[in-house]
Every structure is written in C-alpha cells, then in structure tokens.
Design goal:
alpha/beta; 14 strands
Length: 429
C-alpha cells in the first residue's frame, strides 16, 4: 500500500510538471506570435524597383553578386541614362511650347503649336496654309553688351537699325533728324568708325559700335555704299539671335511716318520694292516670244522687280537667319557680287537639282507708302492725286545726288514747298 501511495504521488507530480510545461509553452507561443507575427525566420525576396517609363531593375539581396549580374546592372544603368536624357528633352520641348502659349502675342508662335498635326481640308475657298515661321529662342550669350543696349532701345522687341561710317555723315544727319521729327524712339545706329560714335552721341542718337573685327572694320571704315551695305547681313544676325525684329534702313531715307504702324508682320521678310507700279512691284505674267518655235512660240514667264536690300523688316526666325547666312556666304565667295542681287537670288530662287532653295515667307510693301525715288520723281510729283498722299518713307535709291534730293523731300512733304522737287530730272542725267 505504501508503494502504491508513492507511485500515485509520483504520477501526480509528473502531471503537474507537464501541465506547467504546457502552460509555459502556450505563454511563450503567445508572446512569439505577438512580437513576431511573420515567424522567427524571415526570407527576403528580391527587391524590384519600377521607375516610371523604364524597364524593371532586379537587385538580388545576396551579398555576393555574380559578374553576369553586374553586367546586367550596368546595361540597365546605361538604358536608364538614355531614357532620362529623352525625358529631359521632352520636358524642355514642353516648357518651350508652354512659354509660346503664355506669350500669346505672335501669330506665328501660336501656329507653331499645331505644326506636325494633321487636319482635314475645309470647304472650297476656306483653306489657308501657315504663313509664318516661329521665332527663335533668344540667346543673350551671343552678345551680352548688345543685348543690354537693345533692352533699353527697342520697343515691343523691334527697332530700326542703320549702318554708317564717316563717309555718309551728312545724309545720316538728315536720316536721324527725320526719325526724331516723326517721334520714333526705337532706332539704333551701328557706327563703323569712332567719328560716327562721337557724332551720334553729340546729337543724342542711340549708337552702338561692335567689338573689334578685322574683316568688318576694314570695310566699315573706308568702304563705299555697296561695300558697307554688304556688311549688314553679317551684323544683323546677332540682333535676330537675341530675339529682336529688325527694320533695316539705309541712311539715304527720309521718314515721314512711323513705319511700325504700317507693317503686317506676317512674313519672315517684309521689304520695299524697286518696282514703280502694280505690275513691276507685285509681279506679272511676261510672255516670251520665240517665232522659231512655231505653234509653241509663246512661253509664259513670271516676273517681279527685286526687293530693295536697303529697307526691309525681318522677324527673328530660322528662315530669316538662314537668309542672312546665305547672303553673307555668297558675298564672301564672290567679292564682286552686288548685295541686292544676291539678296533676291537667295530669297526667290526655288529648289532644283543641286540646289536647296530658301523656305521663307515674304511680303512686298506698298510702293506708294514705302516709296523709292523713281516712283517719286518719275510719277508722283507729276500727278495731283498721288503727290497729296504722304508716304511713310522716301528712299533715294535710284539717284546719286542723294543729299540734295533728301533735303528736297523734306521741303516738299514737311515744309509744304510744292515746287521743291521741280528742279530735279526724272533720272540721274
């Protein structure tokens, strides 16, 4: 009986220990479950990153990368860099388009936003093609000093520009006196020698002299009218690159009205003409007769008198800058060429085998408003109706006695002296 009693006690003690062990195990399990919900052993899968718009990159958590994996990573990095560059370019283009929209001032800039899109043609008579090119993004790094001057002189990003050396001092004085009389403030003389710099300053005329340039200085200081005229195509480039529209003016011009009130600004180049009537100024169908051809003896040709390279308005577009580059290069290669002839050849000649023509929009100015001296002395002064019309400018381009005729134009239109033009012949005889 004693043995049985000891065995019962031993069993009870064992059951108690088991119960306690179970309780302890349950408690520990609860604690582990609470503090380690994902278990004591955690496996970490590969980490994947998915940048926007590019392929995934897989990075293994293994401490030792294989050489093959490193090659893959390098390849993915190169791909990432290229995609990043493309994204930056797209962002830059979008920012530029946004800037054009915000400006909202220039019709050509608005048209730029729709370039490349496709449209259905509208009803007959309603279809209109784009007329103008977008303006360039201004680049002040081209000439910071000139950029600062233009900020003070130009109005609405446009101004009159003339080149002058001491050879044209007297005509220059008549030129800027007429500009001041009209009330034009946005004009600038590009002085080609120090004498003109001082002359302009003494007469309160805005003036700018370029930094030293042997090629330009040699012509600018001693060159005649044609030589100096050829320089403008090289010099004007900086104005357009800076984002300014330029009304280029020779100095043998009398201003009677503000020309900026009479411009259309719908083309890359807007120029006065050497034509003297509607036919010669605006173009006509000229029939060429070759009797030897029999039935086909008559050949129709299209003709127009040239644009005058001494008075034209240029918008800051790629087409305008290309025109300047083409003319300057042509004149440099053919030293005896006349700048006005080259100006028109580059502007009008179409593309053909071996030659890529200039794609520029152009407009001819009203020849009665922007008048050359042939129109004035051969026609207008003899007709009661036209001579009562006050032109915007008179350009004494057809006659060598420029100073005398310029003074007579002032007397006729400003002083009201009706016989001021009578003493001059029609031509230069």
């Amino acid at each position: 009986m004693a043995v049985l009693g000891r065995r019962d006690k031993a069993q009870q003690s064992l059951r108690s220990r088991i119960a306690i062990a179970i309780v302890i195990g349950v408690v520990i399990g609860c604690l582990i479950a609470f503090y380690f919900p994902h278990g004591l052993v955690i496996s970490y899968p590969s980490v994947r990153t998915r940048p926007f718009g590019i392929s995934n990159i897989q990075v293994d958590s293994s401490p030792c990368e294989s050489s093959e994996q490193i090659k893959i990573l390098k390849s993915e990095f190169v791909s990432l860099s290229e995609n990043n560059s493309d994204l930056k370019r797209q962002i830059r283009d979008l920012k530029y388009k946004l800037r054009l929209v915000e400006q909202g001032k220039d019709h050509a800039e608005k048209q730029f936003l729709v370039l490349g899109e496709q449209y259905k043609a509208g009803p007959f008579g309603t279809v209109k093609a784009l007329r103008t090119s977008p303006t360039v993004i201004p680049d002040t790094s081209v000439n910071p000093r000139l950029a600062k001057i233009l900020e003070e002189v130009a109005l609405e990003k446009e101004l009159i520009v003339a080149l002058a050396n001491s050879n044209v001092k007297e005509t220059l004085e008549v030129w800027f006196s007429s500009i001041k009389r009209v009330g034009i403030s946005n004009y600038l003389v590009i002085a080609l020698d120090d004498y003109i710099v001082e002359f302009c300053k003494s007469n309160d005329v805005p003036v700018y002299k370029r930094d030293s340039d042997e090629g330009i200085d040699a012509v600018g200081k001693t060159g005649g009218n044609h030589a100096v005229s050829g320089l403008k195509f090289r010099i004007l480039r900086e104005f357009l690159q800076l984002g300014y529209s330029v009304l280029l003016s020779d100095v043998d011009i009398v201003y009677l009205q503000n020309p900026f009130n009479h411009l259309y600004r719908d083309s890359d180049v807007e120029s006065m003409t050497d034509g003297h009537n509607n036919v010669t100024a605006y173009g006509y169908n000229d029939v060429f007769d070759e009797p030897a051809m029999g039935w086909a003896r008559f050949a129709h040709t299209m003709r127009i008198w040239v644009f005058n390279s001494g008075f034209f308005y240029m918008r800051p577009t790629i087409a305008s800058i290309e025109l300047l580059d083409r003319v300057a290069d042509h004149l440099a290669r053919q030293e005896n060429s006349w700048d006005q002839a080259v100006f028109n050849e580059e502007l009008f000649f179409p593309s053909h085998p071996g030659y890529d023509g200039l794609h520029a929009a152009k407009r001819t100015m009203d020849f009665y408003m922007f008048m050359n001296s042939k129109v004035l002395f051969k026609t207008v002064r003899k007709d009661d109706k036209p001579n009562k019309l006050k032109p915007v400018i008179v350009h004494v381009n057809y006659h060598p006695d420029k100073l005398q005729r310029m003074k007579a134009v002032v007397e006729f239109y400003i002083d009201g002296k009706r016989d001021a033009l009578d003493a001059f012949p029609d031509g230069s005889e």
